[in-house]
């Protein structure tokens, strides 16, 4: 497992660790690559390369080669074209990457070369307007579409690929109406593309959306917080279980992982658990490759918490926690 961090404290970059998929033990921490503020990292589809944003006023995105010993070898770095890049993703074929710039209010699309290196951005889409502040927070490719969550403009955008020019163009500036001041941050798409679940940072909610033949319809909005929690909180990350029967989201403030049981037919959700993350500020979390464990990166408490997933009920049981410097992104 690789760990993206903030480097304004003890951390020096991207770390690697060994994860035991039978016991849930996390061991053998090692610095894999020294780099500044790799706050979000992702694999190429073949896992031969890792791409990391460099979150700063003049943002970057960097390509690394994964070596046989698990360490990372620098390939090249290019500008993200906006401040505070906070998300990077690749398409299924691995020949394109997209980077979301939170402060830049824009996102950049890159062509990836056969050796894993990044070209300068081929397209930069600017969401900023004179009247509203854009904060692009995440973007994901799905088939010939690119979906982009803009927290500042309170919308999820849809872009489509023009096959002739190999470029993207805007299809919709809002696939569905999201309650005012919700702040869409991240989202998960079911494997068949029929359902999209958007986690809203400011609204502490999840917006469930159904896609029927390219038409998007709201299913409902669901609170991520426990019914008796009244203090400040802000959502961060969201993931579906491997079998897509359950949906997980992180709450920073309540410091919990919310668990929903999902109706696979109509896409509706039922909240079944709010589990303490045994730490502070769960910015990011992930499921291990077996789907039997969930790991949480607690930024402010400098630890990673490991939970066992009951694959029948979806509920979490806390196993243990290990120290890690400013962990904010976990990647298997």
UniProtKB/TrEMBL annotation:
Gene Ontology terms describing biological process: glucose metabolic process
Superkingdom of the organism of origin: Bacteria
One GO location term (cellular component): cytosol
UniProt xrefs under InterPro entries: Cycloisomerase_2, Haem_d1_sf, Lactonase_7-beta_prop, WD40/YVTN_repeat-like_dom_sf
Gene Ontology MF terms in the entry: 6-phosphogluconolactonase activity
Keywords assigned: Carbohydrate metabolism, Glucose metabolism
SUPFAM superfamilies: C-terminal (heme d1) domain of cytochrome cd1-nitrite reductase
Pfam families noted in UniProt: Lactonase
Family designation: Belongs to the cycloisomerase 2 family.
PANTHER family found in the cross-reference section: 6-PHOSPHOGLUCONOLACTONASE, 6-PHOSPHOGLUCONOLACTONASE-RELATED
Name of the protein this chain belongs to: 6-phosphogluconolactonase
